[in-house]
Give the backbone structure.
Amino acid sequence: MSNLWWEGLVAGTVGGAAMTLTEKLEQRFTGRPNSYVPAVTLGRLVGVPDNRAERSAAMNLGMHFGQAALLGMWRSVMAEGGLRGMRASALFTSVRLANDQTLENYTGVGAPPWTWPRKELVIDIAHKTVYGVVTGLVADRLAARRGPGAGAQHARLRPGRHEGVGPPPNRR
């Protein structure tokens, strides 16, 4: 199980790097400035004043990559269980979006996404999609070394959810 966590941290960090790269490319074309919402959110969670957090590149990158790495562990568990491919990555992208929105709204730094200007919403969803897909590709590749996963094995017995179709034998 410990390899699973490390694999998730790696997958999430690679996904975070891909998201950061696409953000920088997008900013070059759109002129959109850097967002310090991650830094201020982290600051409020740990008690750092807003005026200090919003100038801290270290806090911004720490929150950005910290969330990416930690949520990568979630995607790694999905892949290990057999939830792989683009459908699983789409499902996981919603986890990333929900995580960001929960923390940002809980701290009062953000507002519900349905109140955002549409252009900002599209940009945010696009970047989180890059994160979700790249994290998924890495997690899926690493998990595939151990076989299809319990969920995929179960689906091979009889696709869907049915009474009387128990789980495959535990291989751990």
